[in-house]
Specification:
The structure holds 2 protein chains of 2 kinds.
Chain A: H1 3-10, H2 16-35, H3 40-56, H4 58-61, H5 80-98, H6 100-129, E1 140-147, E2 157-158, H7 159-167, E3 172-186, E4 192-199, H8 202-207, E5 213-214, E6 226-230, H9 231-238, E7 248-251, E8 254-262, E9 273-278, E10 291-298, H10 304-315, H11 322-329, E11 335-341, H12 342-382, H13 384-392, H14 397-433, H15 448-473, H16 478-483, H17 497-532, E12 542-548, H18 554-570, E13 574-580, E14 592-596, E15 606-615, H19 619-623, E16 627-630, E17 644-648, H20 649-655, E18 664-666, E19 677-684, E20 699-703, E21 715-722, H21 726-740, E22 750-751, H22 752-758, H23 762-796, H24 798-806, H25 811-844, H26 856-882, H27 886-891
Helix pairs in contact in A: 1-2, 2-3, 5-14, 6-12, 6-14, 6-15, 7-10, 12-15, 12-17, 12-23, 14-15, 17-23, 17-25, 17-26, 23-26, 25-26
Chain B: H1 8-30, E1 33-34, H2 35-45, H3 57-66, E2 70-75, E3 83-88, H4 90-114
Antiparallel strand pairs in B: 1-3, 2-3
The chains are: A alpha+beta, B mainly alpha.
Chain lengths: 892, 119
């Protein structure tokens, strides 16, 4: 019996559900009647009577309002949640494939953020946190000596203090001394400049090194010419042959026998050291004070301060070395020893800049996250209908949130993977981007820990930028969503919660971008100030190169150099050529101490600590140093004429009140045979070491023509002032030097400016470039966010704008309306960002030079730049608003 | 709402409508039921005194469903056609409780005035 058919025939307009329900009722009635004994026709008649009653009831004929079908969900097993998540992920993949441009944008933004963060984390970890490669490296401390609070000009501990402490130690297991130098290696290959370390045998015990082959030299070898080579040198020059043990090498005209190979992993202080030779620490007798680096290993459980106290106490027993102490420390006083954990010694000075950079990169990450969150919010808003249907089909709020978070997590993980890949590719670039003297560059790399960190970060950001929008749309009202039409009634641009949230997101991005912009401007200005600072010499057109001449006697060296300089000066491309015993840019260098007679009757002898340099007469002309008084050195100063000296301005200001010209400087520090005194004939401008930790020191310039024996340094610096462009002159210099000294391992010919950029300016430049890059990305992202919000707003307000246009608003008015919205958001973000910058500026203070954290120019330029970018971002939406056809707009 | 001025027919209709809802809610309070079951029970339990017009049952059920007093669902059991079962909602329980107390008060007032006692 087809009851459903009969009901439908009787009540054709009835709802199918109603029909089905009534049909069941009819069936039940029929079955009950039959069960009570009624015949088939009788039972049917009973039911037909009922159907007639229903037909007469108009209420039944009405179409029923649709209630959402509520189907009981099956009992959820434990794996249902996982299955649900997997389904959400599949759905997310489908969704993203339908909107690839959105997905790509999000992945790109995330990749940039995660890539930058991961790269910098790798640097920070490798430099600041990764343990040093030697066993128990946390017990290694560097030993630093001061006298009367003054640090030495070079080295960190004197032989006097070192030996005094070594006699009896209870806080440290052992003490070692070492000093690095550049030498020319020959034998078993081409001559090459390499770095070696002269060290006491105790160094190997202190660091706990074991040889890869052969042996490491011991205490008995300290006066012998043995050498331990690095693994890389062993492979390069000896092909890794075990028979290399016992072979000979020449280091700066001295022959050494190879006794062992140091594994590269344990190379001290770093992998750039290619060989170790013994250093004997002589007692401090008479005026002999030698300085070197000190290293100690604390006994377990001993704090550095305890060791320092012991060192200080023992150091007090060191013999007094009079003038030499004065020369090296700039004063006399009791010995004070400090023990600094070795990791701090190497990485300490980059800690603050690295922290600043990490802060900057985290801000960049925040911008990326906020930007993507705003994007996701807009997408979620446009999917209200879909989400409402999902909810109607039985999805709980938690399900909706899970779906949105799954989509965001997918994007974040993809972006994170791209970012980590980017960081991995960039890690090779770290070697070239970081300055040569940046500590622990070899330890920087993307390892498992860093990858884990990057992955965790991308998942966290995924959850954050997924959760925020999800929480806003998790309770969609189906009826309202389906009934609404897209262009809602007119009102101001920030009426809906979602639009408000997006506006806030853009303001936040603008704020963060302005913080980064201010920092970038401050560091950029610092770098420019450093570059353009008046150093006293012309850095751009002066070429310099290091010429090692270890194999010659000092007199022979001087003669060679004089001849070379003459050849160079004869070349038409070269204006001046000179040589010096030291590079003008080295703040360290040799030091001497002597007494000057009292300036007036009442005063006592003046103790002088100054840096003497041996230079050729054309030195000042080549460098472009201004002569402030008297005359420079000249060719007329010969070995037989009156010995003369030129001093720098700092020397004059510190030691000579009255007219300096004519004052006598003793020359005893050049050697015992120099009993004469030199007359000051001129005062030159200071060579300033801008930005370096050491201030300008008093300097004395002696003529090489008058002191041929003075060229004791094995390496001379050649200086050439070029007439024309430096590029061609470089080749000329190289050619002439090679021709004169074919066997010398000449260094690269670079301008002084390039040398600066590679040394003292390297880090300021790096920081400025990095911050500028972050700021540029931040501005781009914030600008894109602003553009997105305004475009959305214009499309939402199409009808409103149409109404305004219809009522007489001009194009300019409409443009102004949109621009005002954009400017409001920008100004809000800018104000917050500038306030934050004012507060955060103090963390930058140690990195700045020539500008203060509250630099007016910066705080005027940053808002202008930001507003300009905002204006650009606003143009397209504003023009779209201006080009609206009111009729079309009202109809839409 | 009952006022003394209503005509008797209207009063009877109102009473019936109000009572039908009360009856449905009370029956569903015990457990979920489908429409035919509700109809049979009302006839059976009232011992025929409430001559229940089945035709009006379903409009009542639908009305109550629109007012969220009850909730109808299609339940499919193995081997059977699906049937529409009704369940009382939380709102329905509240209305049931309030209607019960209203009827209670009504009866008490009646008995006080007319000395009618209920079983």
């Amino acid at each position: 019996m087809n009851w459903t058919g009969r009901i439908r025939a009787a009540l054709p307009a009835a709802d199918p559900d109603v029909a089905e329900e009534l049909a069941q009722h009819a069936r039940a009635m029929y079955d009950a009647a039959r069960a009570e004994g009624a015949a088939d026709e009788e039972a049917q008649r009973t039911v037909d009577a009922q159907i007639d009653c229903w037909r007469a009831d108009a209420a039944l004929l009405r179409r029923r309002a649709r209630h959402p079908r509520i189907v009981d969900p099956p009992a959820a097993p434990a794996t249902a949640w996982v299955g649900g998540l997997a389904q959400d992920v599949r759905h997310a993949v489908r969704l993203l494939r339908r909107q690839p441009h959105v997905a790509l944008l999000v992945i790109l933004v995330m990749a940039v953020g995660i890539g930058a963060t991961t790269s910098l984390s790798a640097v920070a970890y490798g430099v600041l946190m990764k343990p040093l490669p030697w066993p128990d490296s946390d017990r290694l401390v560097s030993v630093r000596e001061t006298r009367g609070g003054r640090s030495p000009r070079f080295g960190s501990v004197s032989n006097a203090a070192y030996l005094a402490w070594r006699e009896e130690t209870s806080t440290v297991e052992d003490l070692a001394g070492w000093s690095a130098q550049m030498v020319t290696i020959s034998g078993a290959g081409e001559p090459e400049r390499i770095r070696i370390v002269r060290a006491t045998a105790s160094l190997f015990r202190v660091i706990g090194a074991r040889p890869a082959a052969g042996v490491l030299f011991g205490d008995d070898d300290e006066r012998t010419n043995v050498a331990v080579v690095s693994e890389s040198l062993w492979r390069q020059r000896f092909g890794g042959d075990p028979a290399a043990i016992g072979r000979r090498i020449t280091l700066d005209a001295e022959t050494f026998t190879v006794v062992g190979v140091m594994p590269d992993a344990l190379a001290f202080p770093d992998r750039q050291t290619r060989a170790w030779v013994p250093m004997h620490v002589a007692p401090a007798a008479g005026n002999l004070l030698s300085m070197f680096e000190g290293l100690a290993k604390l006994r377990p459980g001993v704090a550095p301060e305890q060791a320092a106290a012991e060192g200080t106490a023992r150091g007090r027993f060191a013999p007094d070395t009079g003038m030499t102490t004065m020369a090296i420390f700039g004063g006399t006083g009791p010995v004070e020893i400090a023990a600094v954990p070795y990791l701090d010694t190497i990485a300490g000075e980059v800690r603050r800049p690295l922290i600043v950079l990490i802060g900057a990169v985290l801000l960049l990450m925040a911008i990326a996250t906020v930007n993507v969150a705003a994007l996701q919010l807009a997408r979620a808003a446009s999917r209200r209908r879909e989400l409402a249907i999902r909810a109607a089909l039985g999805a709980t709020a938690g399900n909706v949130v899970r779906q949105l978070v799954a989509e965001s997590l997918l994007l974040a993980v993809l972006g994170g993977a791209a970012g980590i890949g980017l960081a991995w590719l960039l890690q090779g670039a770290a070697w070239s981007v970081l300055p040569a003297d940046f500590p622990r560059v070899a330890e920087i790399g993307i390892n498992g820990r860093i990858v884990l960190f990057g992955t965790a970060l991308s998942m966290l950001t995924g959850v954050v930028f997924g959760l925020l929008p999800a929480l806003r749309v998790r309770r969609p009202n189906l009826v309202a969503s389906l009934a609404e039409d897209g262009t809602s009634p007119v009102s101001a641009g920030t009426r809906t919660g979602i639009a408000r949230a997006r506006g806030l997101a853009v303001a936040a991005q603008v704020a963060i971008a302005s913080v980064l912009l201010v920092s970038a401007l401050l560091l950029g200005r610092t770098f420019m100030e450093l570059l353009q600072a008046d150093r006293g010499y012309d850095a751009a057109s002066v070429l310099s190169t290091a010429l090692p001449l270890p194999m010659h006697t000092p007199e022979r060296r001087t003669a060679l150099l004089a001849d070379l300089v003459e050849r160079l000066a004869a070349h038409p491309a070269i204006e001046h050529a000179a040589f010096a015993s030291e590079t003008p840019l080295t703040p360290g260098g040799s030091t001497a101490s002597f007494s000057l007679p009292p300036q007036d009757a009442a005063g006592g002898a003046i103790q002088v600590q100054a840096s003497p340099r041996l230079v050729s007469p054309s030195y000042f002309a080549a460098l472009g140093l201004r002569v402030l008084a008297g005359r420079p050195l000249a060719e007329t100063d010969t070995p037989t004429s009156q010995p003369v000296v030129v001093v720098n301005d700092t020397f004059r200001r510190r030691y000579l009140d009255s007219d300096p010209l004519g004052a006598q400087i003793p020359m005893g520090f050049w050697g015992e045979e120099q009993n004469a005194a030199a007359t000051i004939v001129g005062v030159v401008e200071d060579v300033r070491h801008i930005g370096a930790a050491t201030p300008t020191l008093p300097e004395l310039y002696f003529s090489s023509r008058q002191l041929p024996s003075g060229m004791r340094s094995g390496v001379a610096t050649l200086l050439v002032r070029s007439r024309s462009d430096t590029a061609s002159t470089r080749a000329v210099v190289h050619g002439i030097v090679r021709a004169a000294e074919p066997g010398a391992a000449v260094g690269p010919v670079v301008t002084l400016e390039e040398r600066l950029l590679a040394t003292s300016l390297a880090r300021p430049r790096l920081y400025a470039i990095l911050l500028a890059a972050f700021a540029a990305v931040a501005l781009l992202v914030a600008g894109a966010g602003l553009f997105g919000v305004l475009s959305y707003s214009v499309s939402q307000r199409t009808r409103e704008l149409g109404v305004r246009a219809a009522f007489g608003a001009t194009r300019a008015d409409l443009v102004a309306l949109v621009l005002r919205q954009g400017i409001e958001v920008t100004v809000a973000g800018l104000a917050a960002g500038l306030l934050a910058s004012l507060w955060l500026g103090r963390f930058l203070a140690s990195l700045l030079y020539g500008v203060t954290p509250l630099d007016i120019v910066t705080y005027l330029a940053a808002p202008l730049i930001l507003l300009a970018i905002a204006a650009v971002a606003c143009i397209a939406p504003a023009l779209r608003a201006a080009r609206l056809d009111p009729v079309t707009a009202l109809r839409s | 709402m009952l006022t003394p001025y209503m005509a008797t027919d209207q009063l009877a209709r109102e009473l019936k409508r109000g009572s039908t809802e009360l009856l449905v809610l009370a029956l569903l309070e015990e457990r979920d039921r489908h429409g035919y079951e509700i109809a049979r029970l009302i006839e059976g339990r009232s011992a025929g005194a409430i001559s229940f017009h089945v035709a009006s049952l379903y409009p009542t059920l639908y009305r109550m469903e629109d007012r969220d007093l009850i909730q109808g669902r299609w339940i499919e059991k193995t081997g059977q056609r699906r049937r529409r079962y009704y369940r009382i909602t939380a709102a329905g329980r509240k209305v049931l409780a309030s209607q019960r107390s209203t009827w209670q008060a009504f009866f008490e007032a009646l008995s006080r005035v007319a000395r009618i006692r209920h079983a």
